[in-house]
Amino acid sequence: MDSRRSALPPESDTPVPRPLLPVVGQPAPERVDAARNRRRILAAAARIAATHGVQGLTVDLVAGAAGVGVGTIYRRFGDRAGLVFALLDEHERSFQSEFMAGTPPLGPGAEPTARVRAFLHALADRLEAQFELMLAAETSAPGARYRSGPYAVHHAHLVALLDQARPPGTDTHFLADALLAPLSASLIAHQRRTRGVTARDVKAGLDDLLRWSLG
Amino acid sequence: MDSRRSALPPESDTPVPRPLLPVVGQPAPERVDAARNRRRILAAAARIAATHGVQGLTVDLVAGAAGVGVGTIYRRFGDRAGLVFALLDEHERSFQSEFMAGTPPLGPGAEPTARVRAFLHALADRLEAQFELMLAAETSAPGARYRSGPYAVHHAHLVALLDQARPPGTDTHFLADALLAPLSASLIAHQRRTRGVTARDVKAGLDDLLRWSLG
DNA sequence: TTGCGAACCGGAGTGCGTTCCGGTTAGTGT
DNA sequence: ACACTAACCGGAACGCACTCCGGTTCGCAA
What is the mean pLDDT of chain A? Predict the structure, then answer.
């Protein structure tokens, strides 16, 4: 089937983008045709998102453009939300390395409270920069945001910081959820629509929220 | 159809009726057949939700049970989310009268900070009591929660209280959104699923959040 | 090289929310 | 009583996410 066989040496891209999160017992390696199709699908999806806008990114369209059946997309990405999250994956990875190993106050070295603030601000900026994709990822399937790898990572990161910043016995898991909740793309979409809220406003509001606790 | 015809003479006065110009804010009066169908639809929807569960509440099924076309449902309720919200309307109304005119600390008379706390707690209880319906209402359509009447009312209520409790210049609109955000049904569904969180935990967590500010 | 099973492939099929539109009816003015 | 029209009605049709399954391919081991 694949007539255009590359004469180049096997491309040196990332060895298997496998999950951002908890790898429990190695998910099994990916067959070469599967990997090739994943690449095609992502390329097609990115192309279509750029052309037709995110809301024009239908699964059938992507499948057609990638020369693949829709079943293949669902096996790889689970659902439409998974596909959109995959589109965000590259940015997400660099974001993760910034707050886990970058320079303070986002990275290690600063006070936990300052890191929490920097983290939320960075998230607000990221939301603004990739608003359409993030909104689509979040609304493509019910609960998609919370089930996603990135959410789990962000949550775990916040919990670690809050455990240092809050007295023992505090439910830092809930607190982390509560701090992430205002950064829901749907909520911010609503705030934009009704009150013209900007990323600057969001950050200021989050500071209000934090000043109480972390001042 | 409607056999009970009124024997009363045509009302003597009050020419009243429809304004010649569309009055923004005043919903046009509803025709009697429309009202009858609304009642039928809601009754059928409640019946089906009780029988098949909320996830079995499909629009086609409701239309069939109500003896009505699906178009009629959409004209009345806008979308599936609107229908589910309508199912919650009765409870919502009594809840609203409680926090607007009931006894303290939920109703007027208590300190604003205490009222905020009582309000959020009441919301958490309500969420627990009608979890399935609320989750369905929120996830039936993207952004349904924020576009809904109840959200606007809750938000306005919180803003009014926060305006009294926070120093001038605070963005109480954002703060209100931020306090309501953790009470998203989707988020709580996730917390239940992954950590077995209960309404008690939610309230304790919200108290943590508020203690900082409203000490 | 050959055999074999697990993993993968594609696309027809399904279910459901939503829209569209030709026909019908309630309510008003004459 | 009659005419007129805006609002309403039903349900066929549509778009799209997602599933299912018979056929194919990869990768390993003999």
Answer: 87
Neighbours of B120 (CB within 10 A): 22
State which CATH number among 3.80.10, 1.10.10, 2.60.120, 2.60.40 fits the domain covering B28-78. 1.10.10
* Residue extents of the structural domains in chain A: 28-78, 88-214
B178–A175: do the CB atoms touch at under 8 Å?
Answer: no
With CB atoms and an 8 Å threshold, state whether B182 touches A181: yes
Name the pLDDT band for A139 (thresholds 50, 70, 90): very high
User: pLDDT per residue over B168-181, tens digit each?
Assistant: 999 999 999 999 99
Q: Which of B171, B191, B195 sits opposite A205 (nearest CB)?
A: B171
In whole angstroms, D19 C1' to A71 CA is 8
pLDDT at residue A152 greater than cutoff 90: yes
A184 touches chain B (CB under 8 A): yes
| A139 shares contact with chain B (CB less than 8 Å) | yes
Closest by CA to B83, choosing from B74, B91, B70, is B74
- Residue B173's SS3 state is helix
Question: Beta partners for B110?
Answer: B108
Nearest-angstrom CA–CA distance, B78 and B143? 14
| Greater model confidence, B198 or A2 | B198
Among the partner-chain residues B143, B174, B191, the one whose CB lies closest to the CB of A177 is: B191
Q: Do A195 and B173 touch (CB under 8 A)?
A: yes
- Per-residue pLDDT for B25 more than 70? no
Tokens of B206: 């919200």
* pTM for this model (two decimals): 0.87
Tokens encoding A162? 């809050």
